[in-house]
Structure formats: C-alpha cells, structure tokens
Design brief:
Elements: H1 18-24, H2 29-32, E1 44-46, E2 49-51, E3 55-57, H3 65-73, E4 78-84, E5 97-100, E6 111-115, E7 123-126, H4 135-148, E8 156-159, H5 169-184, E9 190-194, H6 210-224, E10 229-233, H7 239-249, E11 255-258, E12 262-267, E13 282-287, H8 291-308, E14 313-317, H9 323-331, E15 336-339, H10 341-345, H11 349-356
Parallel strand pairs: 3-4, 3-15, 4-8, 6-12, 8-9, 9-10, 10-11, 11-14, 14-15
Antiparallel strand pairs: 1-2, 5-6, 5-7, 7-13, 12-13
Helix pairs in contact: 3-4, 5-6, 6-7, 7-8
This protein binds flavin mononucleotide.
C-alpha cells in the first residue's frame, strides 16, 4: 500500500525490470489519467515561465515521454525527464529499487537492510547506473512531451556526460556540452545538468570537484547561450566546501537543485550485499529519511545566494512525501520543490498540494 494515499501501485513498479517499466509503464492511477488540471491563470513564475504550482517530479522516476505526459496530466507542473546521455547506456541489473529500513534521519555512510515492504514512512534505495537510450529515441520523445505541457507547466530535461574508457576530462566535458546541444534542439525550455551522480569509475561526484564542475558548466553555457540551466547537487557535509562550489558556479546557472540521494551500504537480512554486481554494495537512499538533508541544503543555498550576491533559484528536493513536506521546503526558502520517491507512491501528491498547501 502507498504510505500516503492508500494507492496500491507505484507508477514505477520495483518488481519489474527497468526495461519492462520503460516499455509498459507508467502503472496504477498515473496511467489512468483521471486528474483535472486547473484552467485558471498561473500565479507563479519559475525561471521566467508561468507555473500553476512550483512543484514537480525530480529527475529519475519519469523514464520517458509517457511518464512525463502522465505527470503533467496529474498536475505536476515541473516534471523532469530522466537523465539522458549522448548515447545508449545499459541499466544496472534488477533489482533497481528496494525499500530500506531507517530509524529517523539517515546520516551518510550507514549500513541498511533492503527489502520489499514499501511501508510508511518510506525510504528506498535506487540503483540504475543512469541508463540512457540513444538521442534518436529521446529527442523526438522529449519534444512531444514539451508540446504536451499546458499553460502553467514546463517540462525540464536532465542530462549528464559520459566518461570515456581513458578518463579523458576534456572529452568528458565536451560530451556534457554535446548533450546540452542535443537537448536544446528538442525545444525543451529548461535543462538540468546532473553533477551529482557518481561518474563512471570514479568515487567522487562532479559537484565535489568545483574546478571541473565550473569547466563543465562553462562549456554547457557556451553551447546553449541563454537557455535556462539548472544544476543538480548532492548533500554537502561541509558548508565551506559548498560555499567554494557556489562561488565558482553561482553566476553560471539559473537554478540549483539539491539534493540527490544520500549514500549508504544496503544488505539483505543475512548481511550480504542486497543489489547484485560490482560496486553496488553502496547505493543512494531517498525518501522520508533524507528530508532533513534536503531542507538543510535548501536553507544553506538560500543563505549563500544572499552572501555571495547571486540570483539563481533554489529547488528543494529530498523526502517530499506530503503537503506538509512541500510547505516545509517553501518555508525554508525553496523557489520550487520536487519529489521523486513520494510522487512514485502517490500520484495524487500534486493535486493534494494544490488543494491543501498553505505555502503557495
Ligand atoms: C527511481 C529513481 C530514479 C532516479 N534517477 C535519477 C536520475 O536519473 N538522475 C538524477 O539526477 N537523480 C535521480 N534520482 C534522484 C532524485 O532525482 C532525487 O534527487 C532523490 O531521489 C531525492 O528525492 P526523493 O527523496 O523525493 O526521492 C532518482 C530517484 C529515484 C527514486
């Protein structure tokens, strides 16, 4: 059962493979398209676009255009098309999503037990390896979803570069820029550079490497001119390190999205690695237990924006499973809010926010 609404079926089904979800999803209420999108004038603005509700689905659960269209129909006014690459890239083997048991707030680097009881409050681990189809597939697919958006809705597209076998940094940066160009060609109105997923074969996230992060964003900016650019960051333990990053990149981006998942080791009941394959003992945790980290980053980004004199908008993500969570992020200063795990298990979440939020 869903933790939030009694809905039995998440729109991404963890019991099925990534490919099966991609082909046959979305599932449950999301697929039924039973929600009413308001006809009144949008009251909010995000990155220069009018939006009904500054609320969306973060990069990941919306695997392709069918999912994005369903999200738009369900009233998620800022849906993000799952991170794409400049070429086809395979998914990690199934399972890619498991529930995890966490007592209270999750601190980074814990060991957790993974299982299939998706109860409330819900935290999960997700481990896909950022799969992608070829641009030949995703360019027309994304372009059609951009057109599906109604007044007051904006489709966002997430992307990242792919490191070559030789680890050549210049080629990696050029690949980010190429992905941005291919996205721009689709007519998408906002793009999101993902600097927060482990880049293949390296332990560090790009957002923790401020110099390379800056070079990546400069190359993208050069390619896209004034197309609105968001950057996705992970949780930072160290505020001085975050300040250093914002100092480097704050003037290059239009919005900063935080956070991605929080890393943990995930094992089964017997203490063995839960997700099969090399490098998958540690994976990213999202959902209710990381809300504290997303809220903290939202507050810190708002403060740093003031301190350093930047203008970027702040998009708060992490553990948004209810209207209360949305309101908490807005009070923390988020210009927009996004949910991944919460929305997957509650396709009515955007409607609930529209009906009951005190913060928009
Ligand atoms: C199924 C799933 C797939 C995800 N895939 C991506 C991805 O491709 N790119 C990305 O930047 N973040 C990805 N994420 C991370 C989310 O965008 C989000 O930052 C994180 O899950 C925290 O939000 P939540 O607590 O609401 O889930 C994924 C999350 C989930 C649940």
């Amino acid at each position: 059962m869903s933790p939030a609404s009694g809905t039995p079926e998440p729109f991404y089904d963890p019991a099925r493979s990534y490919g099966d979800n991609f082909e046959h999803g979305p599932f449950g209420l999301f697929a039924d398209n039973t929600f009413a999108v308001p006809a009144d004038e949008p009251k909010h603005t995000f990155l220069g676009y009018k939006v009904h509700t500054p609320f969306g689905i973060a990069a990941g659960p919306l695997l392709n255009g069918k999912f994005v269209n369903a999200a738009l129909d369900a009233g998620f006014d800022l849906p993000v098309y799952k991170t794409v690459r400049t070429r086809q890239y395979a998914s990690h083997p199934w399972p890619n999503v498991l529930a995890v048991t966490v007592e209270g707030d999750l601190q980074p680097g814990r060991r957790l037990v993974g299982h299939q009881n998706y109860g409330s409050p819900l935290s999960i681990t997700n481990s896909f390896g950022v799969p992608s189809y070829d641009p030949d597939f995703w360019q027309p697919d994304l372009a059609a979803s951009v057109k599906h958006a109604r007044i007051g809705q904006v489709v966002i597209a997430s992307f990242q570069g792919t490191l070559s076998g030789h680890g050549n940094v210049d080629a990696y940066i050029a690949d980010f820029a190429l992905a941005a160009r291919l996205l721009k060609e689709t007519g998408v109105k906002i793009i999101e550079a993902n600097l927060s997923c482990p880049n293949e074969g390296t332990a560090n996230l790009l957002c923790f490497d401020k110099h390379t992060g800056r070079r990546v964003l400069q190359a993208i900016r050069h390619e896209i001119a004034d197309l609105p650019l968001m950057v996705k960051c992970a949780y930072f333990n160290d505020n001085e390190r975050l300040r250093g990053l914002i100092h480097e990149i704050g003037g290059l981006v239009d919005a900063i999205v935080a956070i991605n998942t929080v890393p943990a080791e995930v094992v089964d009941d017997a203490g063995n690695q839960a997700l099969p394959g090399e490098g998958r003992l540690q994976s990213g945790v999202c959902g209710a237990s990381i809300k504290w980290a997303g809220l903290e980053m939202t507050r810190r980004l708002v403060e740093l924006r003031e301190d350093l004199g930047h203008k970027f908008e702040v998009v708060g993500t992490g553990g948004v499973c209810s209207v209360q969570d949305f309101d908490d992020y807005r009070r923390a200063g988020a210009d927009a809010v996004m949910s991944a795990t919460g929305a997957m298990w509650n396709p009515r979440l955007a409607q609930e926010v529209k009906e009951h939020s005190h913060e928009f």
